[in-house]
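Design job #97: recover the sequence.
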């Protein structure tokens, strides 16, 4: 019977430093890309909400209370 350690860890299974750096770079790219995409979606949503408020109530951004986007009072 063969030794279990040689079956579990063959010689070719070693990871090189270059492979490890590539995995880290890919993960960082995905993390940053996801954050940037979420931020862009949020900005587009905020802009759309402000345009809707202007069209419905005829208000400019300066007339809106701080932190408010939509208002139900005229």
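Job complete. Output follows.
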């Amino acid at each position: 019977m063969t030794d279990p350690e040689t079956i579990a860890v063959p010689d070719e299974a070693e990871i090189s430093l270059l492979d490890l750096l590539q995995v880290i770079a890919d993960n960082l790219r995905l993390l940053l890309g996801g954050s940037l995409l979420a931020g862009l979606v949020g900005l587009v949503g905020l802009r759309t909400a402000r345009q809707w408020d202007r069209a419905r109530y005829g208000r400019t951004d300066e007339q809106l209370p701080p932190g408010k986007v939509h208002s139900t009072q005229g």
